[in-house]
Amino acid sequence: MAHVLAVANQKGGVAKTTSVASLGAALTELGRRVLLVDLDPQACLTFSLGLDPDTIELSVHDVLLGRLSAGIVVSTTADGTDLLPATIELAGSEAVLLSRTGREHALRLALADLLDDYDVILIDCPPSLGVLTINGLTAADEVIVPLQCETLSHRGVGQLLDTVQDVRRLTNAGLRVRGVLPTLFDARTAHSRAVLADVVARYHVDVLSPPIARSVRFAEAPGTGRSILATAGRSKGADAYRRHARAIAGLSTADEIPARRSPPPA
Ligand code: ADP
Ligand code: MG
């Protein structure tokens, strides 16, 4: 049975898509069977993994509207992860779904047939708290909240956690918050750390460690159709995502933590 994780934050530019692509590639490196779902009508995940959203014929839109089964629409990317791609048509799904009964469950039902084919399914949510994100949260076991630590970040987290509460009450009682993932992190500024501490104190959420540092290597990856695991595999950013992938896969992360063992006996 696949473990299903949604990556959500209604703010754009906080590295949701980057985190989904990087975690997906890192989990694939670990030998896990991974499916990525692009739930954003801007289709950035689809594009950044080398597919052209303007020429794709079948997309997650057809799946959400019940026209096609998800398995038919899945493509394999150069990173080796499978992808349920998006096109701009997905913007129209929102309106169609709103007129339907059970609209929040469309993705969960569509993925049900694929749960035995994958170990991990990662859902890239759009930057809104609309019906597409609710579909992502309804289909998920856990949600990861990428957070760029800047002034007023906490307000967005509060709204998202309210939405998670609604989803638990109405459509998915078992949804867990895996934690906040600090992204675009600048450890040199006390400000980033202060914002993070404030979010933890207010909302009692876990902070996933290590934070993902800001690095130009990330900006280069999407244009190549590969994730940073392929374009800058030895960078700190790639390694940070590898550690999160190990934790998601239920593997020990200890061997990658800098040695702090006591010296061998003399
Ligand atoms: P979202 O999906 O939340 O809108 P993206 O993943 O598209 O965010 O990231 C927004 C921008 O930030 C992209 O240009 C991406 O390449 C860049 N980016 C993501 N992570 C980092 C990082 N750690 N350092 C520098 N740039 C990053
Ligand atoms: Mg995105």
Automatic annotation (TrEMBL):
InterPro entries: AAA_dom (IPR025669), DNA_Partitioning_ATPase (IPR050678), P-loop_NTPase (IPR027417). Pfam families: AAA_31. Gene3D superfamilies: P-loop containing nucleotide triphosphate hydrolases. Residues 3-176 form the AAA domain. It comes from the Bacteria. Signal peptide: none annotated. Transmembrane segments: none annotated. PANTHER family: COBYRINIC ACID AC-DIAMIDE SYNTHASE, P-LOOP CONTAINING NUCLEOSIDE TRIPHOSPHATE HYDROLASE. This is ParA family protein.
